[in-house]
Amino acid sequence: MPDTPAPSYFQSMKEDRRIPVHIGGVPGPEDAVLVEGMAAMPAWGHARRFTAPSTGHQPGCFCCAGRGPAASAFSALYRDRAMGLAPYFRRVIVLASLPGQADVRAALEQDAVTRARFRLA
Fold first, then answer.
1. What pTM value is reported for the model?
2. Could you tell me which residue, 82 or 55, shows the higher pLDDT?
3. Which are the contacts of 97, defined by CB distance < 8 A and separation ≥ 6?
4. According to a count of CB atoms within 10 Å of the terminal CB, is the N or C end of the chain lower?
């Protein structure tokens, strides 16, 4: 009996289907955007604000445990997409300072819910 190829279901299990997150860049109309603090909102894309922690501690430190601002913003973006409040975006653009970028990276690495839905591109 000849070898049969694996079903496409198993092929798709190997693909990373999480939403890619780009630090910096120019958002397009079909992108979601995380904007730190009071920075100007982009002309394109569905945007959410977050505020990086200003305690002087590293994002995700034990004394500040819990979901950080970036993790909460990622959840809000995902919820907006699921409920039809945002377009079906295929990537997220992050517009943030270095501390804001650190909070985003910490969320992508340490927050289980964020890590399950999004990945650093």
1. 0.77
2. 82
3. 36, 37, 52
4. N
